[in-house]
Each structure stands twice: as structure tokens, then as C-alpha cells.
Amino acid sequence: MTVLILADDLDPSADAVVVELDKRDVPAVRINTEWFPVQMQLDAEFQSGRWTGELVTPRHRVALGEVRSVWWRSPNTFRFPKGLTGPERQHAHTEAKLGLGGVLFSLPVLWVDRPDLAATAAYKPLQLAVAADAGLLVPATLITNSQQAMRRFAHRHGEVVTKMLGSPAIHEAGGRRVAYTECLTDDHLTDLGGLEHTAHQFQQWVAKEHEARVIAVADSVFAVAIHAHSAAARVDWRSDYTALSYEVVDPPATVIAGIGRVMRSLGLRYGAFDFVVGPDQEWYFLEINPGGQYRWLEEQVHVPVTPALADLLETGNP
Amino acid sequence: MVGFLDDPLASGSGRFPLAASTTTTAPTDAPSQHGLRPWGLRRMGEVLRPGGWRTGWHYDHERQVGVSVSGVPLLTLRSWSGTSTTSPMAGPPTAPTTPPVDGEDPPSAEDYVNDYCPDQPVVP
Predict the structure, then answer these.
(1) Residue B28 and residue A174: Cβ atoms within 8 Å?
(2) Closest B-chain CA to A294
């Protein structure tokens, strides 16, 4: 029985799990949907009530009936032969997605995580509601395109940050730009032009002693405190990796229980949670990313996430 | 062309979300005028990144891992800078993609690889 890993070509976490499964002599085949159809062939036949056949990559092949589990790591979109027109490419894309995606979806195996559930979990407003319902503390949050609402929120809470709901980066003018979480100042409030042109997220600033990334793998939880040693990193640790230090920590039992409830509510087997831990040692939920990274933490403080993932994928459906 | 992020009622396509292509050319559109440009984009800054993205490595189909030009698995490389005491896996956001540019639909976008930055793997 084979573990099927769907991932970007460049993914150190996927690399680590491939190596771990290999050590255990657990067959694993890694594919990137970007290889389809040029570098990968699908041969799937429905007969006797189930899909049989195989996926063939440049060096490996996996029989659909031999798959025990699937690890979904946000693989890339299909790449088609050059020369297709726009409509032809769109057609090919839709057919590929419904064909390859549909066959994979039909496999009666463990998914870590199911892509449709991961997509749903990507909606941050939903995350906050689910987290609060699970008993986790959630900072007051505003999502609006109203300048008036934004000023009201800022007046009520004093210290407020703004952060993206989706990607923190865009490509424009031939370059790549990134926006980190930022504290609002009076200057921000004097000119809010453009706020009305899409949804914006604002959140009450929570006094923080440090932040924490908590990786949940099924029922296992691995928590790492992220200590920031620069002003920028104290607002958003992603803005200054050189100013960070790490430490394995044990979340309070109530937080662990809440994480479990969030995972079950969203139907996830893997999730990367971000928390703020206040001076009072209260843990405030910020977000969960069903595709969040863990590998750099494993390297820093040796939290055994890769073995836990390998355990889960090796076991498959109970 | 409408992507998943433009279509909050998840389409069939959105139920099998794929990240954008790694080969997509960066759009050259300039920012719109002040007041029209979404307010949240004002704080966008250039990514400071040593060297290029996705250079000095390739995917090894046989071993099923990323490797350096000379075939050394990226996992075993200590640091792309050679001097950093921080994780070679950590760095500024380096995801190869931003939201959908091929008309399709990455879900939680690129935080997926934000934490990872083997921009210039160095062979030990």
C-alpha cells in the first residue's frame, strides 16, 4: 500500500516525509499536479464499482487501488502544452481538474487534508467563529469596507492592527510586494481612501509576551513559542526571521482541547495554528492554516512533526 | 476569467484547489491611483531577497526530493547564506505565486511556503 503525496516540487516538509517513509520502507509516491498532463499520465477505469488504474510519473507509478492515504500539500495547477489558445487551455484545465481531481477524490482513503475542507478552512472569518465556538479566545475583529466602521472600531479598541485576509503578497509592476501585519497609527486614520474598494481586516491588538505556532497532526499537538527580538518581529514575526528564537512549550489543556475541537469542526487532520500568548499567559487564537509550514520549527527545536505525519499517513484509514 | 477567490460560492473547481503555476510571469500592471487602490495595499513593500527565487536546485524524480545542482538533497544543506545562525528554512515570504493568475484558485494562498526560503542553496 502506498502513500500518495501531492506537493509542490519545492517543499521541504514533503521532502522530509518522503525520507521518513523511505526509512520505514513504506512505499510513497510524490506527485505535483503541475506535471499533468505533460509529465504525468492518468489511466483510470471504473469497473466493478470502483476506480482502478494508475498514475505514472517520470520515474514512478502508483496503482489507484494501492493508495492507503493522500497527503495534500497544495500542489500546483496543471501545465499544458504551449500553443493552446485561452479557451482551449481553460477547457483542458476544467477537464483535468474534474478528471484527475475526481478520480483522486473517489479513493476511499485517508486524506491529510481533504482539499475541499482545506479550502473552506482558509476563510479567516470562518476560522475565528469556529475557534470561538471551540472555546478559544479570539481578539475582537472587524472586517469592513466602511471608513466609518473602521474609525469606530479603532476608537473602541485603541490599539488595532490590520492584516490581510488572504495572501500577504501581490505581483505588480513586474515585482513582488508583501504586506505584513501593521499597527494602525493616527496617520492611517487621516486618509482611508480606497478602504471602501474591498474588504479589510482589523483586529484588536493583543498584548503579547510571545507568539506560538502549534502544529496539530490528528490528535497530536506540537507547540513552539516564537520569541521576537525586534520591533517589526513583535508585530509580525514573519517580517524579521533573523530576530526570532524558538522554544518548545506546552499549551494549557484548555487550548489543546480547543484546538482539537477546531480540527474536528473543520474536518482537518493537519493544521498550523498561530496564537498570541499574553503576559497573563492567556492564549489568543489568530488563525489556522491547513497548509502551514512546520519544517523550519522541526529543524530549530526538533519537534517531531514529520514522524507524526508519517505515522498518520502510514496508518491510513483505521 | 473568474477564479475561486472571486467566487465565494465554491465551484466544483474550488473543491480541488490548486496553487498557481510556478512558471507564471509576474504581471506588469502598475498600482492604480491613490484613493482607488485598495487601502490595504498601501503598506505593500518590496521583498528583500538575496538572489533569485528557485535557483540552484531541481526536483529529483527518482528520489522524490528537491536537490542542489550537484544532487545534494536540500534537506541536508545547512544554510543558503552560509553564515546565518537561524534556520536555513526560514526567511521572508518566498512563495513563487500570489493569488490566482491562471484563473484558478489557491485557497489559503501562499502562506503555504511563506516560511521557507532556500533561495540560494549552498552545497556544503
Answers:
(1) yes
(2) B115
Q: Report whether A150 contacts A141 (CB < 8 A).
A: no
**pLDDT at residue B53, rounded to an integer:** 44
Model confidence, pTM: 0.86
B2 touches A at CB < 8 Å: no
DSSP B38: -
pLDDT at B48: 54
Top-confidence residue, A64 or B23: A64
Nearest residue to B5 via CA among A168, A87, A119, A291: A119
- Residue B10: pLDDT band by 50, 70, 90 thresholds? low
Of B17, B23, B98, the CB nearest to A171: B98
Tens digits of residue pLDDT in A202-261 = 999 999 999 999 999 999 999 999 999 999 889 888 777 778 899 999 999 999 999 999
Please name which of B57, B71, B62 lies closest in space to residue B119, comparing C-alpha atoms.
Answer: B57
Burial A301-313 (b: 16+ CB within 10 A, else e): bebebbbbbbebb
